[in-house]
Amino acid sequence: MIYRVEIENFYSVRERQVLDLTVADNVRADEEHLMPLYEGSDQRAPKIIAIYGANASGKTTLLRAIEFIAGFVCNSATPTEISQDIHPFNDDECLTKPTRLAIEVGGIINPEYLSEGAPYEMGTLRYELVVQAEHGMVSHVISETLSQRPARKIKWSKVFDRQGNEVVKNAAQFRLNGFRHLLNTLKPDASLISTFAFFTHPTAHFYAKALGSWVYTNLNVVPAFMSGDHTLMQRLKADPVLLKALNRDLSRIDLGIQQFAVEDVPNLGPQGRFTHAGHTRDLPWEMESQGTQAFVRLFPVLAEALSMGGVALVDEFDTLLHPLVLPEILRWFYDDQDRNRGGSQLWMSCHSATLLEYLTKDEVVIAEKTSQGRTHFYTLADMSSQEDKAPVRRSANLYKKYLSGALGGVPIVG
């Protein structure tokens, strides 16, 4: 799980922003909303992180930062690399400065546990990346550092420290024996982890998975009007288990739908069709309601994160979905007895104030943009450190406070 994100000179973020979601064990909070950073940890973090703010305030920037790190760690060295956009803050000074990103995650930190019979060790990992961007892409890596902190320890120890194309430090967990030659061909715009994992380095695979392969997102989905949802239909057609799970939840949120199926049509490929109660003919995908289509598009991201114990990054979570469907999806992530036994997280940007009726102050992040176009983040649990803002009580009505403007993150109209 992700409990800390740091961003500097990335899209609308200019100055370094630190988002720390940890909740100490002595804080009284709704337990179903929180989970330990790792098994046995005294600190907890929320299962759901809801990012609120006015239009263009930088909500998506936070999601993009996490997505970028995950993709860079996993895919930047692969021949089939998908281009990842990266842009510094848009002023003359920042365009020539590096972008700095970091995340901290909790979980298993000892890659040796992958060997049969080896014990596993819990703790936290910290990944720091400093890159120079040009023309919307990484031109070169300035530094890349991975550190770990075992359970009950205070200090971090470095797994590796890369400066440019040189590894200046590596621990036993990231041995270079038999792989040192890769440093001679290390691409300046690729991750050390991604490079070594591609060439089957045993522990690089572990760290790639721990830091990024569990992230699922709708951020880079091709718009429906461009793709006709062809990729979505191919995916559902190829995965009967996912399609069955989708039908189960569709029947719960739309009483009129009896079944959704995907069939191959000559010259068209896989096409979606809905069977409705009382209809003698199936309804084709393009004639279904926009709300149902939105739910189907979002479902694979949520289902895969929940089944894999991963992180779902959802931009515009509440777009087109009925207000009563939204809290139902939140309940999936709160349900650690059935739907979310793997400790998955949901990070979402949204506008729906009614969702605040279901959230606690630990779960709400506010994105605000200054008159100079600079994005700042803060949590409601951290309101006391914000200028001109009072602390938020756990018993406070977040819905009323947000609409009144007391929490920030609302548009100024007129």
Automatic annotation (TrEMBL):
Domain (ATPase AAA-type core) spans: 48-357
Q: Which InterPro entries match?
A: ATPase_AAA_core, P-loop_NTPase
What name is this protein filed under?
AAA family ATPase
Provenance organism: Asticcacaulis aquaticus
